[in-house]
Amino acid sequence: MAEIDTDCYSPNEITRPGGKLLAYYFFSSLLLGPLFFLPLIPLLFRYKTMRFSFDDQGITLKYGAFFQTEKRLNYRRIQDIHLTRGLIQRRFGLANVALFTASGSAGPEMTLEGIPDPDALRDYLYVWGRKAREGVSAAPPPSSTSDDEVLSLLREIRDSLRDATRESG
Question: Where would you tag: which of 58, 94, 111, 144 has the fewest CB atoms within 10 A of its CB?
Fold first, then answer.
């Protein structure tokens, strides 16, 4: 998997689903014919109340008008990420980003709908999920620090620890 440029893509800017999701909900409801309003009403409430939040530790998804649901998922718990694009979703340029954990449940722990660029979000989550599991801070590195500088600093620390253990042993 290629590393992505975290300076170019920041999920922190994503707070709501894209407008195409509302059109998708409406079109999908129309497929039921005269009973289109039955699924449309809850989907409208879901769309209007859905909020995303990405921070340095994980993702929060909130939705619901009458019964509010809030899900929090840390990056280190993400085991797999699936993008699902149905026939109608592809027509609208949408995808579902399903996040799976090792919790043992058959379905995804969290599903994000209406993301403007699901491929970039998937890549971003893979990178930061892997880093969080390896113990590296999930927060993106400051833009002023290059990867080469960080690698150089880590090598210096490794070498000084190696020298210290040789002297004591």
Answer: 144
The 3-state DSSP class for residue 109 equals coil
Tell me the residue type at 101: T
How far is residue 157's CA from residue 78's CA, in Å, rounded to a whole number? 30
64: left (phi over 0), alpha (psi -120 to 50) or beta: left
The DSSP call for residue 81 is E
For residue 99, the surrounding DSSP H or E stretch is: strand 96-100
**How many domains, the chain?**
1
Q: Does pTM top 0.90 for this prediction?
A: no
Q: What is the CATH number of the domain that holds 134?
A: 2.30.29
Residue 95 lies in a domain: yes
Helices 20-30/37-49 angle, 10° precision? 170
d(CA 146, CA 150): 7
Alpha-carbon distances, residue 72 vs 26, 28, 94 (angstroms): 28, 28, 23
Displacement of CA 109 from its chain's centroid (Å) = 12
Q: Do 88 and 24 form a contact (C-beta atoms < 8 A)?
A: yes
Helix (H) or strand (E) segment spanning residue 77: none
